[in-house]
């Protein structure tokens, strides 16, 4: 049934994610591990030279470095930079919290701050996720409106639609856009282009101001916009910038727009992944069970077969997959069909079965009336007779 299909989809997705993680771990380990080993060897050599030059023990020096690491976590740096917990720094921090970026370069050190962060983040993250979802809905509505407007403009040029026709307002306008919802792939393309444009523009701003390379700026944009937030590169952390107020405003706008686009893109990609999983399950089910089902159907006489499945259209962003309700005729092969479909697809089979049962009960073939001969039905008694009469009436009406 439906529950089994959902469980199969869940298990397949879990297996694919685990395989994806294993492949990613293998690739990153192969790329980054040699560099890490080289850096560790260089550090050990520098540490040995420093202890020998200043006549220090390795244990004392390591203890001092651990203390510096603790100070670094609290926001202390070697260079004299602005406080991280002034109002602007705190505002930047709460922005990384509610957007779920979490760079990690600023974290609360007090017990009160940690407790407040739990409740603050619980409400803030939920509200921001809701904002991102509403942003995606508004984007879809705008795309639908543009598509509808372009279609009406083409009709006016062809003379099919009058130029003085006015669009409805309020609820009628919203209902008129329901049929213009774009496909998942169209929305995904638009979001990809928008994310790329925002990332390129933001990188052009970060490169000269932060002193990063353009590739590092693009890398930061993806890490920040996707809310991964490693914290190796963080914007707006220097003590002073040229046009500092304008730069911080631009940084805030780019991060907000980028997170909205990338988060919406992730939602759309998840729909495409869901479709792909359904397609894989369908192929596996067809290969494994098609022969068995065909043999089972051949072995049974007068078997009730489901109606024809409708052809799939371009899937809209709202439906995300073809609906599998019991009322629209698109059912899984293992689901029950309604009595309406039963009667519609098996009239002749039921009539023949009623005739055979009637002849067996009476011991001889019954004489059919002219009406029954005309319609191909025979008489009978009991529930099958009632059903047979109803089928005969339906046949006569047609």
UniProtKB/TrEMBL annotation:
Name of a matching Pfam family: Ion_trans_2
Protein name: KCNKD protein
Keywords associated with the record: Cell membrane, Coiled coil, Ion channel, Ion transport, Membrane, Metal-binding, Potassium, Potassium channel, Potassium transport, Transmembrane, Transmembrane helix, Transport, Voltage-gated channel
Source species, domain of life: Eukaryota
Any GO molecular function: potassium ion leak channel activity
BP term (GO), one: stabilization of membrane potential
Organism: Syrrhaptes paradoxus (Pallas's sandgrouse)
Protein family (similarity comment): Belongs to the two pore domain potassium channel (TC 1.A.1.8) family.
InterPro entries: 2pore_dom_K_chnl, 2pore_dom_K_chnl_THIK, K_chnl_dom
GO cellular component: monoatomic ion channel complex; plasma membrane
Coiled-coil positions: 33-60
The Potassium channel domain, residue ranges: 77-139, 189-274
Transmembrane portions of the chain: 12-33, 90-111, 117-147, 184-206, 212-234, 246-266
Reactions catalysed, as given in the entry: K(+)(in) = K(+)(out)
Subcellular location as annotated: Cell membrane
SUPFAM superfamilies xrefs: Voltage-gated potassium channels (SSF81324)
Membrane topology field: Multi-pass membrane protein
